[in-house]
Amino acid sequence: MSENPSIWGELAGLTLTKGHGTGNDFIFLTDENAEIALTPELVARACDRHFGIGADGFIRAARSTASRAGQKLIEEHPDAVWFMDYRNGDGSVAEMCGNGVRAFVEYLRTEGLIELEVGETVKIGTRAGVKTVARTEEGYAIDMGPWSFIHGDAAREGGEDCLVSARGLKTPRAGLSISMGNPHTVVMLGSEGKLDGLDLHSLPQVNPAPVNGTNVEFVVPVDLDVESGAHVGAIRMRVHERGVGETLSCGTGACAAAAATRFWGGEEAPDEWLVHVPGGTLAVTFVLGPDDLEHVVLAGPAQMVATVVLR
């Protein structure tokens, strides 16, 4: 045994890739047969911004046949060859990440694991089900599936289902909890000054909180200077992600924030939204899905930025 064994365990000597979607950054690893033991401690160490590579999340590219969750999906979707094994920056397992799916497909494509031309689609397995991703001129668009109220009819009737406290707010604010396959709680603020004044290094307190915790999005409306007749909504958003802290972007959070804002806006609210996050802009569109449920389509860029070999 070496006198100085690597702190990286089974990751030592492997090539990892760093990528992002609107500033929401991830570490990628190809492990087709899911043979590497990704402990929470190892993932958290790799995602640490001071002692590791630094990232909001860790994504393993594995064959769907190599994981229990993926095997269940591939029975109905045999073309969902790749499974996105996603972990939060603290090492905890997460259901889904909208920015992560876009970046995951870009990783698969740039690594030569799939071929995908502009206009073509690919199916990706996730813990929140199979997601269809289309390559566009600007990046990728994902059918995120249907959205729903976490607390059911109570939210639908009142437009709110919880109170949220955060540093920078003098009093708790009403929130609405939305599921995008993972949990979100959206809070509308009255001004950009209040949004900018938040301290999201600390976890906002949500009461009552969803059973498995929640991502928390704070939003304010934005006036758009658009051509006459265009019916597009816009919001600014900041987010505190479970197991991570504040991030520059959150794809599922953008979808949840647009869904909540659209619900609050009533029947006249638009179906197309621009969500401005610190890391860029995401497009969110509400469409009728093949299951006759309202689906959310998320579109935005994705980029790989570096490869790293752990010592």
Automatic annotation (TrEMBL):
EC number(s) per entry: 5.1.1.7
Gene3D superfamilies per record: Diaminopimelate Epimerase, Chain A, domain 1
Main localization of the protein described in the UniProt heading: cytoplasm
Protein's pathway: Amino-acid biosynthesis; L-lysine biosynthesis via DAP pathway; DL-2,6-diaminopimelate from LL-2,6-diaminopimelate: step 1/1
InterPro entries registered for this protein in UniProt: DAP_epimerase_AS, DAP_epimerase_DapF
Reaction catalyzed: (2S,6S)-2,6-diaminopimelate = meso-2,6-diaminopimelate
Keyword Amino-acid biosynthesis in record: yes
Family: Belongs to the diaminopimelate epimerase family.
Subunit structure: Homodimer.
Official protein name in the record: Diaminopimelate epimerase
Species in which this protein is naturally found: Rothia mucilaginosa (strain DY-18)
Lineage: Bacteria, Bacillati, Actinomycetota, Actinomycetes, Micrococcales
Gene field: dapF
